[in-house]
Amino acid sequence: MRFGVVGVGAMGSLHAEYLAKRVPNAALVAIADVDIAAAHTVAGRLEVEHAYQTATELIAAASVDAIVVASPRRTHAGAIIEAAEVGKHTFSEKPLANTIEEIDSATAAVEKAGVALQVGFHRRFDASFRHVRDSIARGEIGEPRIVHSVSRDPVWGTSSRLPEDLLLETTIHDFDMVRWMSGSEIVEVHAVGIPATEPGRLEGVIVSLRLKNGSVATIDNHVASAYGYDQRVEVFGTQAVASVANIPSHQASVTGAEGDLHAPPLHFFAERYEDAYIAELVAFTKCVIDGTTPAIGASEARAAQVVAFAALESLRTGATVRV
Amino acid sequence: MRFGVVGVGAMGSLHAEYLAKRVPNAALVAIADVDIAAAHTVAGRLEVEHAYQTATELIAAASVDAIVVASPRRTHAGAIIEAAEVGKHTFSEKPLANTIEEIDSATAAVEKAGVALQVGFHRRFDASFRHVRDSIARGEIGEPRIVHSVSRDPVWGTSSRLPEDLLLETTIHDFDMVRWMSGSEIVEVHAVGIPATEPGRLEGVIVSLRLKNGSVATIDNHVASAYGYDQRVEVFGTQAVASVANIPSHQASVTGAEGDLHAPPLHFFAERYEDAYIAELVAFTKCVIDGTTPAIGASEARAAQVVAFAALESLRTGATVRV
Amino acid sequence: MRFGVVGVGAMGSLHAEYLAKRVPNAALVAIADVDIAAAHTVAGRLEVEHAYQTATELIAAASVDAIVVASPRRTHAGAIIEAAEVGKHTFSEKPLANTIEEIDSATAAVEKAGVALQVGFHRRFDASFRHVRDSIARGEIGEPRIVHSVSRDPVWGTSSRLPEDLLLETTIHDFDMVRWMSGSEIVEVHAVGIPATEPGRLEGVIVSLRLKNGSVATIDNHVASAYGYDQRVEVFGTQAVASVANIPSHQASVTGAEGDLHAPPLHFFAERYEDAYIAELVAFTKCVIDGTTPAIGASEARAAQVVAFAALESLRTGATVRV
Amino acid sequence: MRFGVVGVGAMGSLHAEYLAKRVPNAALVAIADVDIAAAHTVAGRLEVEHAYQTATELIAAASVDAIVVASPRRTHAGAIIEAAEVGKHTFSEKPLANTIEEIDSATAAVEKAGVALQVGFHRRFDASFRHVRDSIARGEIGEPRIVHSVSRDPVWGTSSRLPEDLLLETTIHDFDMVRWMSGSEIVEVHAVGIPATEPGRLEGVIVSLRLKNGSVATIDNHVASAYGYDQRVEVFGTQAVASVANIPSHQASVTGAEGDLHAPPLHFFAERYEDAYIAELVAFTKCVIDGTTPAIGASEARAAQVVAFAALESLRTGATVRV
Question: What is the pLDDT of residues B278-316, one digit of tens each?
Fold first, then answer.
């Protein structure tokens, strides 16, 4: 299966490298980036034949069977639709689009064309998160009652975000985790922002959620963790509690009179989720080859994004918002 | 210093035992309980001379210098006032009273009499919670931004609570932890209940809080933890995160093909907080002997209880409530 | 049951306090110490009626039913024999005597008198060590193959020991652990000392052992651990490995860019083994009251001590010594 | 730099894959294996042009600049010498040869030809082991006094080994760890085998060591760990203790009434040391390109192997053997 990657920023570059080297049955044949120099650099490094400036050119290329879209979120839906119209499959980074309407248009195009669409909810492919989910599915914790999801980024660029960037780019993963872990739908959202110094921007957010099955959940996001990437989940059930802890950056420790010093967590997403990023591309490749529908498609992306918009409204109004 | 203990239920019996055997400069001289047989049993076991049916009798006894009140919460304020009126000191279990008005009356009586009053926020005397608080005070985590407090009881009697019982008996500790850890005041409360099977009762609650200094917090309480007592706090700051983990019931583990099995947490409060219960009585005894004012008195109790009432209102209305 | 404590150094003072306050059905009625002032001090603090300068006086006292011997090891056997001759029971600190001959004499006296004798192998009463032992007994690790026992003291007085002091006072616990955990007898010993600066003295020792059932073991002792008391065991079996980890002095941690700092272990024996010291006295008291034979008596003490002497010989000769 | 891999068993296949995909500036151009079908399979899978049946053919190939030798240990020295004679560099799996004489011949050939030789002591490239070593080098633990090294394989093929296979293939890594961690030379060896059911074979071994600087060490090896690959080291120093723990196979845990279940360690070497295997090849490639001498060459391999032979003698005789 021959892939083209659209957008070679931090995430797109990783997808490109994995497709070139680590995903069986996948080949990377084209790169596109508005910054054509960046496209050429990545193409050169990975020995990829074609570099384009636009998604349109890449999608049109005869050698491309499927695309990975990692350009800014406003461009996702358009690329999905363009690809679908020429019968090509798309793996899209989250969020699937800027609006629910765009998600619906992209979904319609994909369904009409009968092509595959998968969204980059990579935590579902992480061994630890998956282990917790599987434990819950096997009934090991009884019925879920409380879910906590924590996602804190290390300092990376600016230490604040616009509310919509925070909710649509980061918190959307936590909404997906809450839905997946609880096996239920979010029906009520209440969000409290942690204001940044710059007016109108946030350092972080906490969200509390009520679910259809009577469970509750909280989410904790922050964009400037001094100790690295913090990615945890905890699901408290009637029979047990299941948790995902951070992965320390190594397993050495030194214990002296002052205490027992262990490593901080792996620093950021490239280290923490390498296996999950590869696994999601492997799964997508397999779906396309086998002609099956990706498990994590437009409906999952839509459900999380609807909640993100409700949380944005809660941030604006201070009220609890029904989804 | 000669103590009388009022109320010898689960908590009062522990206080009695610690006063009799483990608190330097303290002697236990009287027990009172409406169940006079229970009072006699504890008195006999601990070789205590006097057993009464009422707090009034105990407070009046010449041999008693100070009382520990561990009877139902509606009786706390009355006992504090009666004791103050005869110049005796009180260590009262939380909450200090059933209403803010009662707290204010008790406070006035205590101030007028110049006696000591301490409230049973024992977590402030726990080595782990105190270590986190001290780390924060030394600036080790930078400025606090997010506090999480978890208190889950093992199954104990019924697996549900009336909202006011849950908020005033259990969550009040978490409100105190959030205030203490953040060094700030809670200004806004939003609570979501986990409904129990019986109408009008709760299994648990999550609360989200906004603090005066811009920090936020969540609280997670549940009354039926299958794995024992879960008592944690986490304070995320601009430079580090500080946490209290549970104490495992032992340090043995067995690692086989299925995994690495460690002990569950200490089962409940008597095991988990033995040292803290003794430490708070030691501190109170020292305050009275030295003539100093207990650090954790009526104002701390009042501040937490005001938040508890706001949370109860949020539970009723679904709205965010300003404190 | 009325106890007299002989020797109120570090360990004897603890036994005295526990007997006075924490052991049901036990009363502390007499103290003896060659330093009569020390005897009086402890007696005064614990409200004990009688203080003597010699074990002989204490043993003769009509009010004493049983003794706890915590004086220097050369005095143990004599006190046991004197007590036995007047029908009194003994709980003796380890080692039971200075020589195997003395152990045999004490054993004979005890058997002839029909009194109880228990030796202070307190780790057998520790919840974590016991949990590992019970797991092994239940077959959870399959057949034991390798045992590791670690005992490192914090710096305490001098940072070196005479070989016989190290082996008879400290390593003897590890020999007992190896026997207890493996369920087998030690048949071969090889010891390597870590020389201290002072000639003829050791900082520590490692011992390797071959057991009757084909298992092997190592012991690691050191007398100057900078980070506190280190007390661990690991038993590797054909189906699993069981381990005892140290108990951290609290459960707080702080995670920053430099790492995740946890508490060092509990500092020394008084903190680490408080529960075990009480449990061994509770068990001894129960044996005497019930008229049963203590599980950890002279034969266990003898078996460990025989190995200690073999290890001393190995230290001297460099050879492997058969037991 | 164009590599040929000699021997594509478990380890050689990994080296081949890493050279083909994960080592910058490295290309894999040839495979040799006595099982020519295996050579063709790996060559096909990794798109490698040449497959040979003998090391001789591969070494002679013009396209090959350097070789990785992962064939049986008796063939290592010959391949190193053949490569050196035609000016080619060798990365050799451990042990470097079957005898010290062979090591010396290979060393002479390499020195005469001025080519690079690196031995596969991959643990030196593992982040955790390296972190401990670096901590020691920075003086963080004071002076090392005791080193423990544990290497237990999961059940893999037969559950026993010939003593020389165990000592030369597995324990040799631990001898290297002890030397590297302590910064000292081993001067005395005492080994005790754990006999397997089959006569003359071992399930495992423990070794105790005395070092030149007065430190001591133990090694624990077993070939049938039920819970997976166990790879640890602990270095006790005068100021602190530094340790490497196992890497759990994931970070999820489930805590119920029975306890807190975490993942077992990563199952075996391919998972545990992937990063280290890549890092050692990266380092070797860089050395050759830069014209520098690999840090872990013949002298390190020789020093560990001399100790392995001493340990074999100790196993045979029961005596302590001076190195």
Answer: 999 999 999 999 999 999 999 999 999 999 999 999 999
**Contacting D residues, span 224-243, partner chain A, CB-CB under 8 Å:** 239-243
Distance in angstroms (rounded) separating the CA atoms of residues A265 and A252: 12
Cα gap D296→B265, rounded to integer Å:
46
Q: How far is CA C76 from the centre of its chain?
A: 14
CATH of the domain spanning B124-269+304-322: 3.30.360.10
Question: B172-182 and B127-137 are packed helices; what angle lies between their axes, rounded to 10 degrees?
Answer: 30
| Residue B141, min C-alpha distance to chain C (Å) | 8
**Stated length of chain A:** 323
Distance CA D33, CA D51 (A): 8
Mean pLDDT taken over chain B: 97
Looking at beta carbons, which residues of chain D come within 8 Å of B259?
261-264
Percent of chain D with pLDDT over 90: 98
For residue A298, the SS3 value is: helix
- The string of pLDDT tens digits covering residues C46-104 is 999 999 999 999 999 999 999 999 999 999 999 999 999 999 999 999 999 999 999 99
DSSP B93: P
The two tokens of residue A305 are: 């994004």
Task: Residue count of chain D, please give it.
Answer: 323
A 94-133 residues inside an 8 A Cβ radius of D? 127-129, 131-132
Task: For residue C32, give the amino acid letter.
Answer: A
pLDDT-based confidence at residue B185 (cuts at 50, 70, 90): very high
Neighbours of A137 (CB within 10 A): 10
* Model confidence pLDDT, tens digit, residues C14-45: 999 999 999 999 999 999 999 999 999 999 99
Mean pLDDT across the stretch D109-118? Answer: 98
pLDDT band at D80 (very low <50, low <70, confident <90, very high): very high
- Chain D CB within 8 Å of residue B199 CB: no
Cis peptide upstream of residue D264 (ω within 30 degrees of 0) = no
CATH number for the domain running over D124-273+304-322: 3.30.360.10
CATH 2.60.40.10 describes domain A124-272+304-322: no
| Helix ranges restricted to H, chain B | 10-21, 36-45, 55-60, 76-85, 100-113, 127-137, 163-165, 172-182, 269-272, 274-290, 298-317
Whether C141 and chain B come into contact, CB under 8 Å, resolves to yes
* All CATH 3.30.360.10 domain ranges in chain C, comma separated: 126-269+304-322
The partner residues of C150 in beta bridges, in order of sequence, read C220, C232
CATH 3.40.50.720 intervals, chain B? 2-115
CA torsion sign, B37 to B42 to B43 to B44? Answer: positive
B148 half-sphere exposure, CB direction, 13 A CA radius: 25
CB atoms within 10 A of CB C111: 13
pLDDT band at D113 (very low <50, low <70, confident <90, very high): very high
Surface of D (261-300) touching B: CB under 8 A: 261-265
Q: Across chain C, what does the average pLDDT equal? A: 97
Superfamily of domain C126-269+304-322 in CATH is Dihydrodipicolinate Reductase; domain 2 (3.30.360.10)
The DSSP result for C221-249, as a single string, is EEEEETT--EEEEEEEESSEEEEEPPPBS
Contact in structure between A320 and B318 (CB atoms under 8 Å) = yes
CATH 3.30.360.10 segments of chain B = 124-269+304-322
Q: In angstroms, what separates the C-alpha of C268 from chain A's closest C-alpha?
A: 13
State mean pLDDT over A124-132: 98
> Tell me, what DSSP letter sits at residue C168?
I
CATH architecture entry for D2-115:
3-Layer(aba) Sandwich (3.40)
Closest C-alpha among B211, B235, B43 to residue B129 = B235
Contact A194 B214 (CB under 8 A): yes
